Request: fold
Amino acid sequence: MVRNIVLSVICLCLLTAFFSCAVQQEGKTEDTAAGGKVKLMVLNPGHYHAALIQKSMYGQIAPIAYVYAPVGAEVQEYLKRIESFNDRSEEPTSWQEKVYAGDDYLEKMLTDKPGNVVVMSGNNQKKTMYIKSAVDAGLNVFSDKPMCIDAAGFRLLEQAFYTAEQNGVLLYDIMTERFNVLCILQKMFVLNKDVFGELKKGSVDEPAVVKESVHHFFKYVSGTPIKRPTWYFDSVQQGEGLVDVTTHLIDLMMWTCFPDEPIDYRKDITVKKARRWPTMLTRQQYQKVTGAPDFPEFLKGKLNNEGVLPYYSNGGMVYAMKGIYMKLAVTWNFQAPQGGGDTHHSLFRGTKANVIIQQGKEERYRPELYVEPALGAGAGELAVSLKKAVAGLQSKYPGLALKRLANSWQVIVPDEHRDGHEAHFRIVTEKFLQYLAQGRLPGWEVSNMIAKYYITTRALELACQ
Reply:
Protein backbone atom coordinates (compact mmCIF):
# COMPACT_ATOMS: atom_id res chain seq x y z
CA MET A 1 0.00 0.00 0.00
CA VAL A 2 1.44 3.30 -1.08
CA ARG A 3 1.06 5.98 1.55
CA ASN A 4 1.47 9.75 1.45
CA ILE A 5 4.28 9.53 3.96
CA VAL A 6 6.35 7.37 1.59
CA LEU A 7 5.98 10.05 -1.06
CA SER A 8 7.15 12.64 1.44
CA VAL A 9 10.24 10.63 2.32
CA ILE A 10 11.13 10.11 -1.37
CA CYS A 11 10.67 13.79 -2.17
CA LEU A 12 12.75 14.81 0.81
CA CYS A 13 15.60 12.49 -0.12
CA LEU A 14 15.64 13.60 -3.78
CA LEU A 15 15.75 17.28 -2.96
CA THR A 16 18.27 17.19 -0.13
CA ALA A 17 21.04 17.87 -2.65
CA PHE A 18 19.45 21.24 -3.37
CA PHE A 19 19.49 22.14 0.34
CA SER A 20 15.75 22.69 0.52
CA CYS A 21 12.52 21.08 -0.46
CA ALA A 22 8.80 21.35 -0.02
CA VAL A 23 6.11 18.73 -0.38
CA GLN A 24 2.95 20.75 -0.92
CA GLN A 25 -0.07 18.61 -1.64
CA GLU A 26 -2.55 20.39 0.59
CA GLY A 27 -5.76 20.30 -1.39
CA LYS A 28 -9.03 21.95 -0.48
CA THR A 29 -10.69 18.56 -0.08
CA GLU A 30 -8.20 17.53 2.61
CA ASP A 31 -8.49 20.83 4.45
CA THR A 32 -12.29 20.70 4.36
CA ALA A 33 -12.31 17.13 5.65
CA ALA A 34 -10.17 18.23 8.57
CA GLY A 35 -12.29 21.29 9.30
CA GLY A 36 -12.85 22.03 12.95
CA LYS A 37 -10.14 19.64 14.11
CA VAL A 38 -6.85 20.19 15.81
CA LYS A 39 -4.14 20.43 13.15
CA LEU A 40 -0.56 19.61 14.05
CA MET A 41 2.54 21.42 12.90
CA VAL A 42 5.68 19.48 13.78
CA LEU A 43 8.70 21.78 14.11
CA ASN A 44 12.22 20.44 13.60
CA PRO A 45 11.56 16.92 15.00
CA GLY A 46 15.08 15.93 16.00
CA HIS A 47 14.09 13.73 18.96
CA TYR A 48 12.06 10.51 18.70
CA HIS A 49 9.48 11.80 21.19
CA ALA A 50 7.97 13.86 18.35
CA ALA A 51 7.07 10.66 16.53
CA LEU A 52 5.75 8.93 19.67
CA ILE A 53 2.99 11.52 19.91
CA GLN A 54 1.83 10.18 16.53
CA LYS A 55 2.05 6.51 17.49
CA SER A 56 -1.74 6.73 17.86
CA MET A 57 -4.56 8.47 16.03
CA TYR A 58 -6.87 10.88 17.86
CA GLY A 59 -10.45 11.73 17.01
CA GLN A 60 -9.83 15.43 17.66
CA ILE A 61 -6.69 15.65 15.48
CA ALA A 62 -6.74 15.82 11.69
CA PRO A 63 -4.65 13.07 10.02
CA ILE A 64 -2.59 15.60 8.08
CA ALA A 65 0.54 16.73 9.95
CA TYR A 66 2.52 19.68 8.60
CA VAL A 67 6.26 19.26 9.12
CA TYR A 68 8.73 22.16 9.06
CA ALA A 69 12.40 21.28 9.45
CA PRO A 70 15.88 21.82 8.09
CA VAL A 71 17.04 19.38 5.42
CA GLY A 72 18.88 16.43 6.89
CA ALA A 73 18.82 13.01 8.48
CA GLU A 74 16.78 14.02 11.53
CA VAL A 75 13.56 14.78 9.69
CA GLN A 76 14.04 11.62 7.65
CA GLU A 77 14.36 9.55 10.83
CA TYR A 78 11.15 11.11 12.11
CA LEU A 79 9.34 10.30 8.85
CA LYS A 80 10.58 6.72 8.94
CA ARG A 81 9.09 6.26 12.41
CA ILE A 82 5.75 7.66 11.26
CA GLU A 83 5.89 5.35 8.26
CA SER A 84 6.49 2.37 10.54
CA PHE A 85 3.41 3.30 12.60
CA ASN A 86 1.36 3.57 9.40
CA ASP A 87 2.59 0.21 8.11
CA ARG A 88 2.35 -1.91 11.26
CA SER A 89 -0.07 -4.81 11.20
CA GLU A 90 -1.83 -4.08 14.50
CA GLU A 91 -3.76 -0.83 14.79
CA PRO A 92 -1.92 0.99 12.00
CA THR A 93 -2.05 4.76 11.98
CA SER A 94 -2.97 6.82 8.91
CA TRP A 95 -0.87 9.97 9.19
CA GLN A 96 -0.27 12.05 6.08
CA GLU A 97 2.90 14.10 6.40
CA LYS A 98 3.19 17.34 4.45
CA VAL A 99 6.83 18.37 4.58
CA TYR A 100 8.63 21.66 4.09
CA ALA A 101 12.39 21.40 4.53
CA GLY A 102 14.70 24.38 4.24
CA ASP A 103 16.79 26.79 6.27
CA ASP A 104 13.81 29.12 6.68
CA TYR A 105 11.58 26.39 8.19
CA LEU A 106 10.58 28.47 11.24
CA GLU A 107 9.71 31.58 9.22
CA LYS A 108 7.84 29.42 6.72
CA MET A 109 5.74 27.78 9.45
CA LEU A 110 4.90 31.13 11.04
CA THR A 111 3.90 32.51 7.64
CA ASP A 112 1.88 29.49 6.48
CA LYS A 113 0.26 28.59 9.82
CA PRO A 114 -1.65 25.61 8.35
CA GLY A 115 -2.29 24.24 11.84
CA ASN A 116 -3.06 25.46 15.35
CA VAL A 117 -0.81 23.28 17.55
CA VAL A 118 2.98 23.20 17.26
CA VAL A 119 4.69 20.00 18.40
CA MET A 120 8.33 20.51 19.44
CA SER A 121 10.83 17.78 20.24
CA GLY A 122 14.39 18.23 19.14
CA ASN A 123 17.48 20.38 19.56
CA ASN A 124 16.99 22.35 22.78
CA GLN A 125 19.38 25.22 21.98
CA LYS A 126 16.69 27.14 20.08
CA LYS A 127 13.60 25.51 21.57
CA THR A 128 12.74 28.35 23.95
CA MET A 129 13.02 30.82 21.08
CA TYR A 130 10.75 28.55 19.00
CA ILE A 131 8.23 28.49 21.85
CA LYS A 132 8.21 32.27 22.22
CA SER A 133 7.90 32.76 18.44
CA ALA A 134 4.97 30.35 18.25
CA VAL A 135 2.94 31.85 21.10
CA ASP A 136 3.71 35.34 19.77
CA ALA A 137 2.06 34.18 16.53
CA GLY A 138 -1.02 32.94 18.39
CA LEU A 139 -0.20 29.25 18.16
CA ASN A 140 -0.65 26.59 20.85
CA VAL A 141 2.53 24.72 21.80
CA PHE A 142 2.83 21.07 22.89
CA SER A 143 6.50 20.76 23.79
CA ASP A 144 8.76 17.94 24.81
CA LYS A 145 10.93 18.61 27.84
CA PRO A 146 13.01 20.57 28.55
CA MET A 147 11.45 23.84 27.45
CA CYS A 148 14.59 25.72 28.49
CA ILE A 149 18.13 24.71 29.44
CA ASP A 150 19.71 27.74 31.14
CA ALA A 151 18.90 30.87 33.11
CA ALA A 152 18.55 33.06 30.02
CA GLY A 153 16.16 30.52 28.54
CA PHE A 154 14.14 30.50 31.75
CA ARG A 155 13.62 34.26 31.56
CA LEU A 156 12.43 33.94 27.94
CA LEU A 157 10.17 31.02 28.84
CA GLU A 158 8.56 33.04 31.62
CA GLN A 159 7.80 35.75 29.05
CA ALA A 160 6.35 33.10 26.73
CA PHE A 161 3.90 31.96 29.40
CA TYR A 162 2.78 35.55 29.87
CA THR A 163 2.33 36.01 26.11
CA ALA A 164 0.42 32.72 25.83
CA GLU A 165 -2.02 33.97 28.45
CA GLN A 166 -2.43 37.30 26.64
CA ASN A 167 -2.98 35.59 23.27
CA GLY A 168 -5.34 32.95 24.62
CA VAL A 169 -3.19 29.98 23.60
CA LEU A 170 -1.84 27.01 25.54
CA LEU A 171 1.81 26.27 26.31
CA TYR A 172 2.26 22.79 27.79
CA ASP A 173 5.12 20.35 28.27
CA ILE A 174 4.86 16.60 27.88
CA MET A 175 5.04 15.06 31.35
CA THR A 176 4.47 11.36 30.63
CA GLU A 177 5.49 9.97 34.03
CA ARG A 178 2.31 11.17 35.70
CA PHE A 179 0.57 8.31 33.87
CA ASN A 180 2.85 5.56 35.14
CA VAL A 181 0.65 3.32 37.31
CA LEU A 182 3.36 2.96 39.97
CA CYS A 183 3.61 6.76 40.28
CA ILE A 184 -0.18 7.05 40.45
CA LEU A 185 -0.43 4.45 43.22
CA GLN A 186 2.48 5.98 45.11
CA LYS A 187 0.67 9.31 45.06
CA MET A 188 -2.55 7.69 46.30
CA PHE A 189 -0.79 6.12 49.28
CA VAL A 190 1.06 9.36 50.11
CA LEU A 191 -2.25 11.26 50.14
CA ASN A 192 -3.90 8.62 52.33
CA LYS A 193 -3.36 10.00 55.84
CA ASP A 194 -4.38 6.73 57.50
CA VAL A 195 -1.51 4.98 55.69
CA PHE A 196 1.07 7.71 55.29
CA GLY A 197 0.33 10.24 58.00
CA GLU A 198 1.81 13.67 57.27
CA LEU A 199 4.66 14.37 54.90
CA LYS A 200 7.83 15.00 56.89
CA LYS A 201 9.73 18.21 56.34
CA GLY A 202 13.15 16.56 56.25
CA SER A 203 16.48 18.35 56.04
CA VAL A 204 19.36 18.88 53.65
CA ASP A 205 21.06 15.74 54.98
CA GLU A 206 17.88 13.63 55.17
CA PRO A 207 15.34 14.94 52.66
CA ALA A 208 11.69 13.97 52.98
CA VAL A 209 11.44 13.16 49.26
CA VAL A 210 14.14 11.43 47.22
CA LYS A 211 14.01 10.61 43.52
CA GLU A 212 16.85 9.04 41.56
CA SER A 213 16.83 7.71 38.03
CA VAL A 214 19.32 5.95 35.78
CA HIS A 215 19.07 6.17 31.99
CA HIS A 216 21.00 4.85 29.00
CA PHE A 217 22.15 6.45 25.78
CA PHE A 218 21.84 3.26 23.74
CA LYS A 219 18.51 1.43 23.96
CA TYR A 220 15.60 0.22 21.84
CA VAL A 221 12.48 2.24 21.02
CA SER A 222 9.50 0.57 19.35
CA GLY A 223 11.70 -2.48 18.85
CA THR A 224 14.51 -0.73 16.97
CA PRO A 225 17.87 0.63 18.20
CA ILE A 226 17.65 4.31 19.00
CA LYS A 227 19.61 6.66 16.77
CA ARG A 228 20.45 9.88 18.54
CA PRO A 229 21.34 13.09 16.67
CA THR A 230 25.01 14.09 16.56
CA TRP A 231 24.24 17.25 18.55
CA TYR A 232 22.62 15.26 21.37
CA PHE A 233 25.99 14.96 23.14
CA ASP A 234 26.71 18.68 23.02
CA SER A 235 25.43 20.19 26.28
CA VAL A 236 25.13 23.58 24.57
CA GLN A 237 22.50 22.12 22.23
CA GLN A 238 20.92 19.37 24.34
CA GLY A 239 21.38 20.81 27.81
CA GLU A 240 23.07 19.19 30.79
CA GLY A 241 21.56 16.40 32.86
CA LEU A 242 20.48 18.83 35.57
CA VAL A 243 17.99 20.49 33.22
CA ASP A 244 16.72 17.51 31.23
CA VAL A 245 15.26 14.37 32.85
CA THR A 246 15.10 16.21 36.18
CA THR A 247 11.98 17.92 34.82
CA HIS A 248 10.06 14.64 35.23
CA LEU A 249 11.30 14.09 38.77
CA ILE A 250 10.45 17.61 39.93
CA ASP A 251 7.06 17.40 38.26
CA LEU A 252 6.26 14.17 40.13
CA MET A 253 7.35 15.71 43.43
CA MET A 254 4.98 18.68 42.99
CA TRP A 255 2.16 16.53 41.62
CA THR A 256 2.38 14.07 44.53
CA CYS A 257 3.03 16.39 47.47
CA PHE A 258 0.96 19.40 46.42
CA PRO A 259 -1.77 18.16 44.04
CA ASP A 260 -3.60 20.93 42.16
CA GLU A 261 -1.74 23.48 44.30
CA PRO A 262 0.18 26.34 42.63
CA ILE A 263 3.88 26.71 43.42
CA ASP A 264 5.34 30.23 43.28
CA TYR A 265 9.07 29.91 42.70
CA ARG A 266 9.71 33.38 44.11
CA LYS A 267 8.53 32.46 47.61
CA ASP A 268 8.08 28.66 47.70
CA ILE A 269 11.42 27.41 46.31
CA THR A 270 14.99 27.52 47.60
CA VAL A 271 17.67 25.51 45.82
CA LYS A 272 20.12 24.52 48.55
CA LYS A 273 22.89 22.77 46.63
CA ALA A 274 23.63 21.12 43.30
CA ARG A 275 26.42 19.24 41.54
CA ARG A 276 27.19 17.85 38.08
CA TRP A 277 29.53 15.20 36.71
CA PRO A 278 30.25 13.71 33.28
CA THR A 279 29.68 10.38 31.57
CA MET A 280 32.76 9.52 29.52
CA LEU A 281 31.86 8.63 25.93
CA THR A 282 34.32 6.93 23.55
CA ARG A 283 34.37 7.43 19.80
CA GLN A 284 33.12 3.86 19.30
CA GLN A 285 30.17 4.46 21.60
CA TYR A 286 29.37 7.74 19.89
CA GLN A 287 29.45 5.98 16.53
CA LYS A 288 27.16 3.18 17.75
CA VAL A 289 24.42 5.49 19.02
CA THR A 290 24.58 8.24 16.35
CA GLY A 291 25.80 6.40 13.26
CA ALA A 292 28.42 9.13 12.72
CA PRO A 293 31.95 7.89 11.94
CA ASP A 294 33.62 10.33 14.33
CA PHE A 295 32.96 13.18 16.72
CA PRO A 296 31.89 16.34 14.83
CA GLU A 297 33.98 19.47 14.92
CA PHE A 298 31.79 21.16 17.55
CA LEU A 299 32.66 18.35 19.99
CA LYS A 300 36.34 17.75 19.18
CA GLY A 301 37.44 20.72 21.25
CA LYS A 302 35.80 19.14 24.31
CA LEU A 303 37.61 15.77 24.10
CA ASN A 304 40.16 14.85 26.76
CA ASN A 305 43.74 13.73 26.05
CA GLU A 306 42.54 10.17 25.35
CA GLY A 307 40.02 11.34 22.77
CA VAL A 308 37.07 10.65 25.09
CA LEU A 309 34.14 13.04 25.47
CA PRO A 310 33.19 14.18 29.01
CA TYR A 311 29.45 14.70 28.65
CA TYR A 312 27.81 16.41 31.63
CA SER A 313 24.66 14.33 31.57
CA ASN A 314 24.63 13.62 35.32
CA GLY A 315 23.52 15.82 38.17
CA GLY A 316 21.97 16.05 41.60
CA MET A 317 20.38 18.70 43.77
CA VAL A 318 18.66 19.37 47.07
CA TYR A 319 15.97 22.03 47.30
CA ALA A 320 13.16 23.06 49.61
CA MET A 321 9.61 23.38 48.30
CA LYS A 322 7.15 25.00 50.71
CA GLY A 323 9.46 23.97 53.54
CA ILE A 324 9.76 20.31 52.41
CA TYR A 325 13.31 19.18 51.62
CA MET A 326 13.64 17.24 48.37
CA LYS A 327 16.58 15.52 46.71
CA LEU A 328 16.99 14.22 43.19
CA ALA A 329 19.73 12.72 41.07
CA VAL A 330 19.96 11.67 37.42
CA THR A 331 22.65 9.37 36.03
CA TRP A 332 23.28 8.37 32.42
CA ASN A 333 25.24 5.26 31.46
CA PHE A 334 25.95 4.24 27.90
CA GLN A 335 24.03 0.95 27.88
CA ALA A 336 22.04 -1.08 30.39
CA PRO A 337 23.32 -4.45 31.65
CA GLN A 338 21.84 -7.59 30.11
CA GLY A 339 18.20 -7.78 31.13
CA GLY A 340 18.34 -4.28 32.57
CA GLY A 341 16.96 -0.93 31.56
CA ASP A 342 16.23 2.57 32.81
CA THR A 343 15.60 2.59 36.56
CA HIS A 344 13.67 4.73 39.00
CA HIS A 345 13.96 5.01 42.79
CA SER A 346 11.39 7.15 44.55
CA LEU A 347 10.95 7.65 48.31
CA PHE A 348 8.37 9.70 50.23
CA ARG A 349 8.81 9.82 54.02
CA GLY A 350 5.66 10.17 56.13
CA THR A 351 5.03 10.20 59.88
CA LYS A 352 3.38 6.75 59.67
CA ALA A 353 4.98 5.14 56.62
CA ASN A 354 7.49 5.46 53.81
CA VAL A 355 6.20 4.79 50.30
CA ILE A 356 8.88 3.60 47.89
CA ILE A 357 9.26 2.70 44.22
CA GLN A 358 12.30 0.53 43.62
CA GLN A 359 13.51 -0.73 40.25
CA GLY A 360 16.86 -2.43 40.71
CA LYS A 361 18.51 -5.80 40.28
CA GLU A 362 16.43 -7.39 43.04
CA GLU A 363 13.29 -6.37 41.13
CA ARG A 364 14.87 -7.60 37.88
CA TYR A 365 14.76 -3.98 36.71
CA ARG A 366 10.98 -3.95 36.89
CA PRO A 367 9.52 -1.13 39.03
CA GLU A 368 7.81 -2.30 42.20
CA LEU A 369 5.96 -0.44 44.96
CA TYR A 370 6.65 -0.93 48.67
CA VAL A 371 5.25 0.49 51.91
CA GLU A 372 7.24 0.30 55.16
CA PRO A 373 6.57 1.62 58.67
CA ALA A 374 8.18 4.95 59.47
CA LEU A 375 10.77 4.99 62.23
CA GLY A 376 8.90 4.65 65.51
CA ALA A 377 5.53 3.86 63.87
CA GLY A 378 3.58 0.69 64.59
CA ALA A 379 3.63 -2.06 61.96
CA GLY A 380 0.30 -3.48 63.15
CA GLU A 381 -1.58 -0.23 62.73
CA LEU A 382 -0.03 0.27 59.28
CA ALA A 383 -1.07 -3.24 58.22
CA VAL A 384 -4.73 -2.50 59.01
CA SER A 385 -4.83 0.85 57.18
CA LEU A 386 -2.82 -0.48 54.22
CA LYS A 387 -5.13 -3.47 53.70
CA LYS A 388 -8.13 -1.14 53.82
CA ALA A 389 -6.52 1.20 51.27
CA VAL A 390 -5.70 -1.62 48.86
CA ALA A 391 -9.21 -3.04 49.17
CA GLY A 392 -10.59 0.39 48.26
CA LEU A 393 -8.44 0.53 45.12
CA GLN A 394 -9.33 -2.91 43.80
CA SER A 395 -12.42 -1.73 41.94
CA LYS A 396 -10.23 0.56 39.85
CA TYR A 397 -7.23 -1.77 39.77
CA PRO A 398 -8.56 -5.37 39.84
CA GLY A 399 -6.01 -7.83 41.15
CA LEU A 400 -4.17 -5.26 43.26
CA ALA A 401 -2.82 -7.08 46.32
CA LEU A 402 -0.36 -6.98 49.23
CA LYS A 403 2.61 -9.27 49.88
CA ARG A 404 4.17 -9.28 53.34
CA LEU A 405 7.95 -8.97 53.37
CA ALA A 406 10.38 -8.96 56.30
CA ASN A 407 10.11 -5.24 57.12
CA SER A 408 7.61 -3.94 54.59
CA TRP A 409 4.74 -4.76 52.24
CA GLN A 410 4.96 -5.02 48.50
CA VAL A 411 1.97 -3.76 46.54
CA ILE A 412 1.40 -6.31 43.78
CA VAL A 413 0.38 -4.53 40.58
CA PRO A 414 -0.88 -6.90 37.84
CA ASP A 415 0.60 -6.60 34.36
CA GLU A 416 -2.75 -5.54 32.92
CA HIS A 417 -2.37 -2.19 34.69
CA ARG A 418 1.23 -1.61 33.57
CA ASP A 419 1.91 0.04 30.27
CA GLY A 420 5.22 1.22 28.89
CA HIS A 421 6.71 4.68 28.55
CA GLU A 422 5.66 4.94 24.91
CA ALA A 423 1.98 4.35 25.74
CA HIS A 424 2.00 7.37 28.04
CA PHE A 425 2.45 9.72 25.08
CA ARG A 426 -1.10 9.00 23.96
CA ILE A 427 -2.49 9.67 27.44
CA VAL A 428 -0.66 12.96 27.94
CA THR A 429 -1.72 14.06 24.44
CA GLU A 430 -5.34 13.31 25.30
CA LYS A 431 -4.96 15.40 28.47
CA PHE A 432 -3.59 18.28 26.39
CA LEU A 433 -6.51 17.93 23.96
CA GLN A 434 -8.90 18.13 26.91
CA TYR A 435 -7.29 21.39 28.05
CA LEU A 436 -7.35 22.65 24.48
CA ALA A 437 -11.09 22.00 24.24
CA GLN A 438 -11.59 23.90 27.51
CA GLY A 439 -9.54 26.78 26.17
CA ARG A 440 -7.15 27.06 29.10
CA LEU A 441 -4.81 25.23 31.44
CA PRO A 442 -5.44 24.99 35.17
CA GLY A 443 -3.61 27.82 36.91
CA TRP A 444 -1.49 25.42 38.94
CA GLU A 445 -0.18 23.77 35.77
CA VAL A 446 1.24 27.07 34.52
CA SER A 447 2.78 28.24 37.79
CA ASN A 448 4.26 24.78 38.43
CA MET A 449 5.83 24.55 34.98
CA ILE A 450 7.49 27.90 35.62
CA ALA A 451 8.64 26.77 39.08
CA LYS A 452 10.01 23.52 37.65
CA TYR A 453 12.21 25.28 35.12
CA TYR A 454 13.36 27.77 37.72
CA ILE A 455 14.59 24.85 39.84
CA THR A 456 16.46 23.15 36.99
CA THR A 457 18.16 26.28 35.68
CA ARG A 458 18.99 27.61 39.16
CA ALA A 459 20.51 24.24 40.10
CA LEU A 460 22.67 24.37 36.97
CA GLU A 461 23.89 27.84 37.94
CA LEU A 462 24.86 26.62 41.41
CA ALA A 463 26.56 23.47 40.09
CA CYS A 464 28.68 25.47 37.65
CA GLN A 465 29.91 27.97 40.25
Summary: Residues 5-35 have pLDDT under 50 and may be disordered. The chain has two domains: 4-177, 178-464. The first helix runs from residue 4 to 15.
